[in-house]
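Reviewer 2 asked us to include a model.

Predict the structure of this chain.
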Amino acid sequence: MKLVRTKGRGAAQTEAMLAALERRGSAALDSVLPAVRRIVADVRKHGDRALLRYASRWDELPGPQTLRVTKDEMAAAWDSLHSELRDALCTAAAQIRGFAERQLPQTWNSSPLPGLVTGQLVRPLGSVGCYVPSGRHPLPSTLLMTAIPAQVARVGRIVAVSPKPAPATLAAAHLLGIEEFYRVGGAHAVAALAYGTPTIRRVDKIAGPGNLYVTAAKRVVAFDCSIDMLAGPTEIVVASERGAAADIASDLVAQAEHDPEALAIFVTTRADLAREVMAETKQRSRQIAVAREALDRSGLVIVASSILEARAIVNRLAPEHVTVDAAADLDWVRNAGSVFVGRWSAQPLGDYISGPNHTLPTGGMARVRGGLSVNDFVKLVTVQQYAQPALRALGPKAALLAEAEGLAGHAEAIRTRLSERRSRG
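Predicted model (structure tokens):
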């Protein structure tokens, strides 16, 4: 990890570094976009033929007959799991489901004046595709995090895709009652979900993280099929003045082991704590090659000149994960995907079992959105119903606004009803 200061020699370089981090995002996608566009176009045009060719080459799919995972295979995977792991999956699923149920928006209506009823209906999406990575680390937890909110939203059709799915991922699918599961991944899986093939019918929305090719493919299809977000490499920022160096370092290493491109940053005003955390992080990452590579490449310890500046830096970075010392710190956190409070809140707990979703905005997008939630799988349909008293009260004003915009037809549609009322009276 590299130590930088916001004051003194090197302050200008630190500011330039922070400005560059603020601009991080999907720039890395540009390098793979030409190849991804070709793959997406190929699957869109040639359907299963192209999909199976890519699946055979990159997903090691033995043959067309194995593309769809059977219910028996999922059940067998569940039966093969150790009872303690089955229990852990059940506990995680219950936690995630309970949190999603509390997040679910409600149908409501109100009467702001006599004769007018306005409100909203909550309606589920028709179908969603859940992308579950299965590369460096198989992630059954991602299936729980994507499929359960969709189930709580009452989405009619939930499709899971994962290249070379691990037994634990198939077991999780059985636990959730997933009926459609395909052994396919990468940009070709995204294209199949977005546009459909004879085997895989298209979906309304694609959710779940993936590698650079998956993320680029989601970007390519986003105008034709809704997506959750463009999630990049994992990010962690710990802001602490009194935390234990061992706790801080362990969280930094834990998130860094996801990806060599992961971003791990510690922000403090205490130079002594900064040095302790750097030493602990070096020690704890020795046996974890991916974490060591990520920390060497982009790990940062930032010593700020004041607590206010440290807090401002965290909000400027708008990271995926943020750890703070105490609940009072929540008052100043503005931009974060998910916040972990206090020394006992190890960040990996959020990856698996706390309940809030672990699919979170990266690349600074926490400035404008939160993590995946049940809200991503519903739509709010607004409703308005007028009776004559409300038409009399609001109609003339609405007609004036329509005329001010030069929309005579709008005004006439309102005044027709007003004149009807008068003539009948």
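The chain has 16 helices and 14 strands. The CA atoms of residues 4 and 302 lie 5 Å apart. We have added this to the supplementary material.
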